Amino acid sequence: MSQDLQWKVIYVASRQEKKVFDRLKKEGIAVFLPLTKKLRQWSDRKKWVEFPLFNGYLFVKPTSTQRDEILETTGVVAYLRYNGQDATVKEKEIQVIHTILESGYSLETIHTPDDFEVGNQVMVDEGPLKGQLVDILRRNNESCFLVSFETLGQSIKVELPYHVFRKNE
Questions:
Q1: Is the separation of the CB atoms in 149 and 141 below 8 Å?
Q2: Same domain for 151 and 103?
Q3: What is the pLDDT averaged over residues 76-102?
Q4: Reported confidence tier of residue 54, pLDDT bands at 50, 70, 90
Q5: Are residues 32 and 103 both part of a single domain?
Q6: Last residue of a domain, one of 44, 67, 89
Q7: Residues 48 and 26 in one domain
Q8: Full residue range of the structural domain in which residue 101 is found
Q9: What DSSP character marks residue 75?
């Protein structure tokens, strides 16, 4: 039966991601909170701080009885909905997020050759993301590639050397 369970997305109150994660974990619910580290400067010190990769969202894999229990958890606002049903996230997309976080790649910028353009679909040929087909949604003045996860309607920037890409033809 656990094979039939799907990852779903819940929206949580502002700045409550870690607290809700802890509450759900304590209740024995499968939950995933992708975190990234950023260096923060205070007047007297610098410190690495963990931030949610997707502000306001957590991934949960509830049983049918846990679905409503999650909604009753303090800090949970609602399930993300798509076409009148709870939005689901494919296991493969969750694995890609895990791979990105574990890769050690910076989640800020990448170097891009001029032959890649917005709208291109490219294949990653090397490294931990090898075999992933990604869409270039935007390039800024630092030539960032944005990798899109359709189910969430959000994108994340992943630093990759441009030589790992090839055009998908």
A1: no
A2: yes
A3: 88
A4: confident
A5: no
A6: 89
A7: yes
A8: 92-169
A9: T
